[in-house]
Amino acid sequence: MRGSGRMVFVVPIQEGKSLMKARHLAVLVAGVTALANVAACGTSSSNDNDKGSKAANIAPLDPNTKVSITVGCQPPKSSKVLRTEWNNDVTAFQQLHPNITIVSKDAFPCEDPKTFTAKLAGGQMENVYYVYLTDAKNIIANGQAADITKYVSGVKNYGSLQPQLLNVFKGGGKLYGLPKTNYSMGLLYNRKLFQQAGLNPDQPPTTWAEVQADAKKISALGNGIVGYADYSAGNQGGWHFTAEMYSQGGDIVTPDGKKAAFNSPQGHAVLQNLQQMRWTDNSMGAKQLLQIADVQPMMASGKLGMYLSAPDNIPTIKDQFQGKFEDYGLAPMPNGQGTLIGGDGYMFNPKSSPDQIKAGILWLEFENLTPGKGQFDWAQKKIDKQPVGLPQPNIFTGAPAAEELQIRKQNSNLPVDNYKAFADGDPKVKYRLEPPQAQQIYAVLDGVVSSVLTNRNADVNSLLSKAETKVNGILANAE
Fold it and tell me: What is the CATH number of domain 7-183+341-396?
């Protein structure tokens, strides 16, 4: 949801949503997934900016220059393994660069909504600070990040980063940040329940019609089992409605971001599908107004067949709710017209000196942008008994992507074949970020989804029309 790809550490009930601003496990591990195709989906190419950065290349950090930088989003003490990995990475980095001192700053969540905006406005952020992808454009527009364009030409894998991710950190032909992780939405399903319902767990549904049919069969198992669940409260219903709209080829706002676009055939299709599963098929159960905290334990206890999810839900279901890795599969979004993506990264305090920016980029290259090191040190994560093999994050293209995949495969400790459908993806899928003013829009759309799921006689036409008027007002006031 707000800044949907926010990733922090060991959060029991979070996924790629923005409501709680505490995001995915930093240990999410990836296959070379459909997001490798994101390169074809960027709204603009990074080539021109990359050429400009090379032309404006400046000298690297002098190894005799002593530099100290503060870096945000160190894992909290409660996440012992992840914090140890971070601290060990800092030690290894400082051995390579003895002139650079990393001063780690922990926080939970990393981008705390209670303090983030105030710290930005007051210029109190770390030299290298953590951001959600959906916040980057506003930060750039407000002049709250340093231009790093001329500093990145020496980053080894810069040219192989997903263009769509880099574009998020660009404005006016300049670069203001670097990505850390990414995610896309898919369909998480219970393989065990699929088998019990006579369905093939290696052939998950690919359309919403198939989801409806499979959910009906799973619900017929009885014993309180629900075939399909969806969110409809806490802004999470609006967030999932957005993902479902993208999967149908629809949109939430017009391309210029000035008008609502969900009162459309695709919007009607999303709601009518939910209406049918809830009231005609009875495959969604009687309990509604669900949020992620309700759905994850349902999946872990074997009482739920399917729900929309990012890959990070799988280790959460296992670690926090005693589920079993082998019970879960992951498939692409039904209908395959599009999927919601998110992620996170780092930007630089504009008060930072050139040497601090250079040092910070060296750290980000080591920790976030190098296969086999930092967040991609899958060998160490396997030793630390962290999950290795989930599809995502995947921020590279080309040779670095292949190298990272090979290292991941060598150290995988998960049933990766269960995620094959998701990992293989479809090169034609459009990868879409959240709409502008996402949280306000989601609050409106929550009411639409919850009405459909709690009122048998809900009027879809009226609901969408009224929501359209409200969202148009939100967008007009944001200009």
Answer: 3.40.190.10
